[in-house]
Amino acid sequence: MANILMWSGIALTVIGWLALAWQASKIMAVKDDLNKFPQKKATMLLHRNYCRLTIIAGIVLLIISLAI
């Protein structure tokens, strides 16, 4: 059980970091358009927060697996 939690925590953390890097590259690509369209900027920030929450969930799973 702890082994499964550990690997799923690692997977979630890696997926979160990759998604966060992808979001950062998207923001850099459309940097000029973000000033023109504030709604698009809010959507991008929401997606970045989802990536951060995925990383935090992965870290929590890792901590739980180490405590077991």
Strand content: under 5%
User: Overall pLDDT, averaged?
Assistant: 92
Taking all Cα atoms into account, the compactness measure Rg is 15 Å
For the biggest sheet, the summary is: none
Look at the helices and sheets and give the structural class.
mainly alpha
The strand count comes to 0
Share of helical residues: over 70%
Write the H/E string, N to C. HHH
Which residues sit in consecutive blocks of at least 5 with pLDDT less than 50?
A: none
Query: What gap, in angstroms, lies between the N and C termini?
Result: 9 Å
User: Can you tell me the overall shape?
Assistant: elongated
Count, helices: 3
Structure write-up:
The protein is an all-alpha fold and 68 residues long. Helices cover 94% and strands 0% of the residues. Helix 1 (2-29) packs antiparallel against helix 3. The mean pLDDT is 92.
Features:
elongated, single chain, 3 helices, 68 residues, mainly alpha
Quick structural summary:
With 68 residues, this protein is mainly α. It has 3 helices and no strands.
Write the layout of secondary structure elements.
Blueprint: H1 2-29, H2 31-36, H3 38-67
